[in-house]
Amino acid sequence: MAIASLKPIELFFRRAFLWGLGRMGQTGQKRLHAEFTIPESPSILLLRQDRLGDVLMSTFFLAALRERYPSSRLAILLGKNNWEVIPLLPFPCETFLYSKNMFADMKMLRMIRQEKFDVVIDLTDKASVTSSLLMSVIAPKLRIGIEKENSVIYDIAVPRPSQTEIHITQRIAELLRPFGIDPTTVDKRPRLRLTAIRQKGRIGLNVSSRTPERSAPAAASAEIAKGVLKLGFSEVLVFAAPHDRQRGEESVRIARDSRVHLAESKSTFAEFAEQIASCEYLITADTSVIQIAAAAGIPMVLMFKPMYDEHPWTPVGVDFEIHTQYPTLAALEPQPVLTLFQRLLERTSPAIVFDTEKSS
Fold first, then answer.
1. Which residues have CB under 8 Å from 176's CB, separation 6+?
2. pLDDT classification of 16: cutoffs 50, 70, 90
3. Shared domain check, 329 and 217
4. Same domain, yes or no, for 63 and 137?
5. Fewer CB near the last or first residue (10 Å), C or N of the chain?
6. Residue 283 and residue 290 in contact, taking contact as beta carbons nearer than 8 Å
């Protein structure tokens, strides 16, 4: 109770901090792009200390910078929530961990500050107090970010496209403009180092997300698994997050079919990603899994709760269908998902002949 009661206080101070930055931006003067010269082989640090899906989605940005500056020094600052993505990054690069441990973070930031990076890029497109503080402490020669409430902290702020109309990857890609890179020419698919071979006949069914309202109920998941098998597939591999393992187990139990089984629990996120990459098709309720599947080129059906304030994080570069369940996925109906899955198959595997009586 005491911990919960601190949350409004924390939010108050965060809003007050952002408001203060906004006031500074109204009275200060923003320097122009022309005032900055980026070296031909710059040292660049990316700030991506948020969630797994965010850093997975941002890997295209890292790849675009490497292509533009092949001999540059590229580094990325991650957080405790996405640190495990390191083995999957498109190429080896320096990494720093923002652990929210005051003493460890002070030591880490002191070291980064001494490195004197040419550029630090804030990849968040929502105002972040953490990013603002990190940039202030690191003190690079040039700070770049997206125009928002805390943009007074940046030397260069690129315009933020509509969050409700424009996909997150397009919004992030605008940060490439100061480097002379046209974001419209950049392949925005996630870039991950994956080695798994897709197994024909294997369907991945991810039933978990961060919160219950974004997760698929066990009974509905079981019906989806049985419906997929009726279409002629040989296996449904059920994925569930470690905190949600019971949901996955219950889905398998209700399905009562030996071809529906729970994916083996893995000790690392990279190993889990390889499991996802082994599927021929995917049905998922989680955005980080979407990014893994997109990187592996897997067609998929998305199960989303409504997103009113932001464009859905749909996959880039692969075929997909999307089912939005109102008001949340707790009310998920299996049949619309199966209908969309069959539509996806008809588009991606036209040679498949469906037995409509069997699949209904």
1. 61, 64, 65, 68, 182, 183, 186
2. low
3. yes
4. yes
5. N
6. no
